[in-house]
Amino acid sequence: MTLLSDYSSTTYIKRLKSRNKFKAIEELARSFENADVCVDLDGLVSALIEREKIMSTGIGFGIAIPHAKISSVNRIAFAVGISKTGIDFDSIDGKPVHIIILVAAGEKQHKDYLKLLSRIMSVLKQEEARSRLIDSSSNEDILKTFQIAVDS
Amino acid sequence: MPSAWNIPLQLFTRLTRVFQSRYARTDIYRYLGHVVMSIILGLVAGLAGVLFHTLLEWMRRAFEIISLLKFDFYDIDLIFVIPVLGGVIIAGMTRLFPDIAREKDVLSVIKSILLRDGKIPIKTTIFHFIAPIISIGSGAPLGPEGPAAKIGSGVGSYLSQLLRLGPVDMRMYASAGAGAAIAAVFNAPIAGVFFGIEVILMNDLKNQALSALIISSVVADVISRALLGNHHVFLIPAYSTGPISEYPFYLVLGILCGFLSLLFFWLRRCFRHLYNNTLKLENAWLRLLPVTLLFGIILIEFHQLYGIGYSAINDVLAMKFPLEVVFLLLLLKIVFVCLFLEAGSYGGVFAPSLMMGVLLGCAFACTVNAALGTSLSPVTFALVGMGGVLAGINSMPLTSVLLVFEVTNDYRFVLPLMLVSVIAYLVVVYVNHGTAYSNDLLLEGIDVSKRGEIDLLGKIKVADLKRIDYDTIDYRTPFPVLVRRLLDSIHGDICVINDRQRLLGVISLNDIRQAITSMELSDLLIAGDLINRVPTVTDPDPVSVAIQRLEEYHLQTIPVVMSAANPTLTGILTHRDILHAYSLLLEKMGTDQYLVNYSSRKK
After folding, report:
1. In this structure, is residue B533 part of a structural domain?
2. Pick from A55, A111, A125: CB nearest B514
3. What is the 3-state secondary structure (H, E, C) of B56-121?
4. Could you read off the pLDDT of B130-145 as tens digits, one per residue?
5. How many domains does chain B have?
6. Number of Cβ pairs closer than 8 Å across A and B?
7. Which residue, A46, B105, B144, B518, has most beta carbons within 10 Å?
């Protein structure tokens, strides 16, 4: 059984310092630096920013899910960024974002991409899970929040 | 008009009407009409073949007179002038009618039948009647069968056009005419029929043209024998077929014939590259005249290379040449045949194949005898070599066996002939991954399947089936709007474009099923997130390419763009439209006619 957490890693989890949403996206995307997720990190960053400029991925409740599907991504993965102070993301509800889930997928991973986004949303719609993510002191605890089956 | 004529005229008109109303749509009328048409075609194609043969002979003699005029003081053999003179005329013809000139050789006949319903304009037929007479008559080392096939199919096509027959009939009589003319020119009716089956119909034994092919070939050959006599061009000296232990040598000869055929294809490719890419010669005179001049100079020493070369074949069979001359003639023949063909001369490769085969077979037997002390008959090996090279170069093992058998009127060497012809054919097919004609057709974008059936969808272009009633959406469109547009879309999918109308991808209902079921995603996604990057096609692409890509990517529609470099969307092609076009094409081919007859008989 594949778990949602299998698509991430403790190294892809960051306490974000940036206050600007584009800087925050870049900072989080760089967590894939030494992993085999993407062969062109600059390309990934610009794709994420371009997408963000079209329509904000801040969907309210302090959550943003920047995402991109490009050919330089070898393996679908997501990174988790936590900002206690909050980042202005032009969210639907106008509130600052505390949890950023950054999803990177390959061009041909269309089905997995939608499934992954859908499962991440199902975790984040629970208020308890959102609080746990913000308050967790260790990356392992954050990753545990995503230990749900992808195909359920 | 006198009143006395009125009664019989009215009677005739009335009888015609009764006949047409009662019988014109009956099977017996159609079959009788088909037989009569095949006989007329055989007569006309046979007469055209005989006229072609006779004019070719006259032209050869007319040019030979020039070579007999010698300057006594300088002792110059004027034979070298003849090919140049012929070259000047035919290069001029090529420049005057460049489009018609391109439609030459057997391949153009196959293409006319496959792609243009057998329609060959009469001016093309007349051009390819005259041009080879001048080129071969003036010494070009080529054969009459390519032009003969062109003339025969042109006659079949023209008769069909005169009688306003449909495309199915026109294809049938154009195919049959080609076989009939071959039968007349070579005095070989069975080979004519098999040439039609193996080459023109591409081994399609179920083809409707078969009966027309047989009838017209027989009639054409009868005409040819009646007018030209029953003589055979080759004079075969006494020979023995040798013991069974000689068969391994035949096997080796078969392989050598295959290699010689491959050398022939390689040389043609080299000369084509030389003319088109290295020298970039487009002027017909510049292409042809240097070749004719060089050939003319060679002719001073080797008269045997002049024209079709049947007398040279007889000389080889009579062992008139020493071994080194046989080798030299073989080398010169293959080089000049390829040079003339690529330089733009007119003529076929059957007769040159026969000469190359004779030279190879004779050289092989003599060399083996000298090296191993065997007593192989050079005559038998030369005759068998004829079939081998003919089969290798033209990819027609059955026709080769029958043609050599019919032109030599000798049955005794038929077993080694069959073996060598098939081996040579297999060597060529194995190395080239296909027959000569199927590979040449493939180079022109026409895919012919192994069973000899044309790739029907390769006949139509994307532009012919393209739809312009397609849905597009901007890549920034929010998900809820996208879903509504998709549900209202004409074809169940929607093309995503950018500000410059360039295609970014396609979204189908199937692609967003996951997103629709998860309501949380509706605020997160835009059209650009859901793009499926699909393959595209362009207007000039054959529909067969589109169907391959549709099936490979499991798509129902494929976008049509301006070009690979400029993916501006111009339309779409749907799977359903392609299937519809395919069934229409099948109907046009007459295939489903049999299905209807079969099911109605079952009832």
Report:
1. yes
2. A111
3. HHHHHHHHHHHHHCCECCCCECHHHHHHHHHHHHHHHHHHHCHHHHHCCHHHHHHHHHHHCCCCCC
4. 888 888 888 888 888 8
5. 3
6. 51
7. B144
